[in-house]
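Entry type: protein chain
Record version: 2
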Amino acid sequence: MPFSSALAVDLRHTRGYRVADRRGRIVGRVECPMYGTAPDVPDALSVSAGFLARRRLVRADTIEQIDGQSGVIALRVERESIKKFL
């Protein structure tokens, strides 16, 4: 089974993965991990939908599954509930 728990996958190695919301709609691609509570463990991902698009902050606790073979991160939330930032 190629899917794994979000806790079992190191978010530091997800750059370039596609991110899909609860309905399977593509949100964007992971640009980089983001650190907040601990300096060595990322707790969010910066996701961009395109060159001039605002980025979205995808918190680690919103990740449902990560498929390392296809490079897709499935979220348990709708796209509209993900915070945007510059």
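Comment: The chain has one domain: 3-85.
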